[in-house]
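Q: Is it fine to ask for two folds in a single conversation?
A: Yes, each is treated on its own. Send the first.
Q: Here.
A: Result:
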Amino acid sequence: MTETKTKIALVTGGSRGLGRNMAINLAKKGIDVVITYNSNSAKADEVVAEIREMGRQAAAYQLDTSKISDFGTFYEQLAAYLQETYGTANFDFLINNAGTALYAPFAETTEEQFDAAINIHLKGVFFFTQKALPYLNDGGRIINISSGLARFSFPGSSAYASMKGAIEVLTRYLAKELGSRGIAANIVAPGAIETDFGGGHVRDNKEVNDHVASVTALGRVGLPTDIGGVVAFLCSEEASWINGQRIEVSGGMML
């Protein structure tokens, strides 16, 4: 009987919130997982332990995804771990999830705020993915995380949403240019989700929470558990013919 090759996913920002739920759901699909975290090593270790309890391999590495100069060293570390664990330096699925919030009116957004956000949400994703290409298996998948805010507008998110819109365009180019390697690239665009993202802006502000629920067809704010399964599905064989697509997971916000 032919042995099934282990599939491996790399999830940036996988220690908390949406990234954690993505990592757990990938493991439930029988996929081994490597996560990155920015500062909370304890939370990252918890995710690794939970995945290992499920019988899958997992590892966590510190990475600031805004520091492009660190990407080469990161991939060298990752390749060494993969080589030692699996006998290959390659992996199958890249999920660019890491991100931070930027809530500021257009008229008050500073250049410093803009630059810090673009390094994470656009420049970082662009070059982190570029650096991944030698390690990403042919037939693999790239999943970029956008936002419902790239389709509908809420005051205070002009910079963040513009960068997410750019990621959506980039993803279509990735699908086009990497298709010859059998690599599919898609976008998952969550609506408003109850996490600690942006200091718990959606979760902890009752006025915001109630407003989001009122403009959502399914009548509530999203939860991390609404998102991770969709990412895991896009890494499955059943989703192999989905490419260059934006999948909004928002419960029907602002229809």
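Q: Second one now.
A: Result:
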Amino acid sequence: MPTPIHIRRAGPQDTNTITVFNLAMAQETEHRRLDEATLRDGVRSLLGQPQYGFYIVAEQAGENQKQAIGQLMITYEWSDWRNGVFWWIQSVYVIPEQRGRGVYQAMHRHITAEAKNDPRICGIRLYVARENERAHAAYRSVGLLPSAYAMYEQDFVLGPHAVEL
């Protein structure tokens, strides 16, 4: 019988794990090597300023303690059209040996239930690289649908990462 997945809000004690997961995710998905010190400071900043968002961590019981196996970050977007807040899912990462075992689905169920219990939350959004078909399939499996919008950006820190439409 598989070990149950436990989902919880991250705290300062998770800074190192989240930093390591984000380094791996950026390398895997965008082939970017992030500056570890800057990233660690960014993780600490979000964990210390909940008005910007929060992380959740997925864990499973290990031999002597719980082991982090996944994470995601939620940030906020105000919608004047809906008079509510969208939760943006970002920085999704599941350790490779746990992929395909329902870790993302468990995290998604957790944040969806939390969002639906808060009348201020009007929906959930995320962005995903066009070529990441595995992620597209995972997101569709939990009921997320492609948006009518294309995303554009001007990145002042990491620089351009443009793609042809």
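Q: Anything structural to flag on that second result?
A: Two points. DSSP finds four helices and five strands in the chain. The domain at 6-141 is CATH 3.40.630.30 (Aminopeptidase).
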